[in-house]
Amino acid sequence: MAEISTTSHSGPARWLVVAVPYLWLLLFFAAPFLIILKISLSDTAIAMPPYTPVFDSFGTLGNFVSQLDLENYFFLAEDALYIQSYLSSLRMAFISTFLLLVIGYPMALAMARAPSRWRPTLVMLVILPFWTSFLIRVYAWIGILKPEGLLTVFLQTIGLMGPDEQVQVYRTDIAVFIGIVYSYLPFMVLPLYSALEKMDGTLLEAANDLGCPPLKAFWKITFPLSMPGVIAGSLICFIPIAGEFVIPDLLGGPDTLMIGKTLWTEFFGNRDWPLASAVAVLLLLVLVVPIMIFQKQQQKVG
Amino acid sequence: MAKSLGPVKRKFEPWNDPTAQPFIRFENITKKYGDFIAVSNLSLDIYEREFFSLLGPSGCGKTTLMRMLAGFEEPTEGRILLQGNDISGVPPYRRPTNMMFQSYALFPHMTVEKNIAFGLEQDKLSKGEIEGRVQEMLKLVKLEEFAKRKPGQLSGGQRQRVALARSLAKRPKVLLLDEPLGALDRKLREETQFELMDIQHTLGLTFLIVTHDQEEAMTVSDRIAVMDKGVIVQVDTPAEIYEAPNSRYVADFIGDINIMEGTVVAPSGDVSPQPVVTLDCDGLIVAVEQDCAAKHGDRVAFAIRPEKVRISPDQPADTSVNAAYGEVWDIGYLGDFSVFLVSLSDGRIVRAAQANVSRLVDRPITFGDMVWLSWPRDAGLVLTR
């Protein structure tokens, strides 16, 4: 009977509770996205703002639609720069996410296996970098990585590098990887930690007991059971990394091609807002559509 | 549903055979965690095909002892021999023991089938062989139709069966069961206890079970070791443990018992042909047929099970010894039995149990009645420890 009576709690209060998150999403996600979508379908104008208004006055709907066109999207397909930017961003995001997994997993595992009284402190240490500005932390890496920076000085002091040599990573893709992995590590470690921490330790004992040595037990038991954490951490990192602008801009060189930088250049360098908006919309589609398909499939499996 | 009971059990007591070699031998085992001594200089022999129970309250060291046999813990001192071989330092994954965990520890991402096959896959058996053994195990625990389910889709009782099948699949020399039935309800637990005994008997394996449930230990075991604070207090058959506990601790831990402190007034050496000890339990004179080392004036305890105390409104022939007079203070009706709490004149409470052979309306004794309690000389026993 209890299942049937759930509808009895309907009423204005219940609708309000349900509506709040949807209103929030509508206001801060759907509305801005629709504005960007609209701009991407309009033409460039040398004006303030630098695009032709398509929805200024509530004119006739036909008039509104006739002014929209997909010109910007065709342009994106024509110019190799954009496709290369997308591909290069995805490549960078893939490699970074992989590095994050390789570095973050042992950290999360060590945290989850640490004595329980240490764990809150360890989690605290992972979150600690958030207490200083992200921008300042990336600038700090410039100080470390630049040719006459701390890394060079350190290597020269311990004798691994001659006094005339310098570390040549600043303004290369390697520096971008270092910056990205450093900045996103907490976002990888925390979901992994929460998945690993929940795991029942006796499962490993059971595997051991049944003749499975510890390393094999890791791949047979621990890793498969931490998949939700691996997927969550990878998505949380991959999506923003693909659109990352600040790190490649500050640490990367002129050859570092990422869609975030291209987007910025279109907006603020070329002041071509419609084209930049088209780039943004496409980026969203490139990222969201495969993830949605993936999640649908995961639901089917689970 | 007709059920075959299998061959009738034969008398099995290798522990009384001086030529029998122990299958498992714990030799002066001590286990310390920092300052805490979990197991203290413990020695124990367990024989092949024995169903052996480690019984005790939580924290008595029984689980630690089992985990040392499985290889999850190493003894601080002493050694463990399995078929005469020292197994210290052998990692758990190379020991011929398998364990059924208290939490079952089923792999949640694998089907029932895969869970059972897990141990066999580690042994690099052929596909066909694994398949055959898994089917055999599924049949043994009657879970054939659940082979493709995941543990999350099973009931508690079914999960417990999967855990049992998984731990039996490798045909271990010793099966370790850590509180195996703790999570099941009473009815299912009783059923499973008999099934466990049946399986143990059919497969001819050695079972070592850890439990704090004395009824469970009594039902399933050939022998029980009662543990307290890291030492074994008594190792014996269930009947011996129940009828002849060697200490106040064991007597009190197993079943219901009346314990009265008293002083020896006539040691057993003085009487013949049957040795009889006579005690003075604060005015109550008790005579017990027992060969007991206690000397005149020793402080000892008299212990008697409630079902061995006769309760009657009529005065027994001899009231000078093994008899007490009191008022029925409370009655616990248990269905098959009623337990009468009788308050003696000095306030001491004695429990007497009576089988309810007739229906309730015919019962002659009720609250507030003055009754006589009496017992024969061989019903109780003297505890010196």
Mean pLDDT of chain A: 86
Strand order of the largest sheet of chain B: 6-7-8-3-9-10
The overall pLDDT of chain B, averaged over residues, is 84
Helix count of chain B, per DSSP?
A: 8
- Write the CATH homologous superfamily of the largest domain in chain B: P-loop containing nucleotide triphosphate hydrolases
Task: Please characterize this protein's 3D structure.
The complex is a heterodimer of chains A (302) and B (385). Chain A is built from 14 helices and no strands. Chain A has helices at residues 12-40, 61-67, 71-78, 80-113, 119-127, 134-145, 150-157, 173-197, 201-209, 214-225, 227-242, 246-251, 259-269, 273-301. In chain A, helix 1 (12-40) packs across helix 14 (273-301), helix 4 packs across helix 8 (173-197) and helix 8 runs antiparallel to helix 11. Residues 1-6 of chain A have low confidence and may be disordered. Chain B is 22% helix and 32% strand. The mean pLDDT of chain B is 84. Chain B folds into 2 domains: 14-248, Rossmann fold, CATH 3.40.50; 261-383, OB fold (Dihydrolipoamide Acetyltransferase, E2P). In chain B, a hairpin with a 4-residue loop joins strand 17 and strand 18 (349-355). The longest helix of chain B is centred in the middle third of the chain and has 18 residues, at 186-203. Chain B has 8 helices and 20 strands. Chain B has 385 residues and is of the alpha+beta class. The interface between A and B is medium-sized, with 18 and 24 residues.
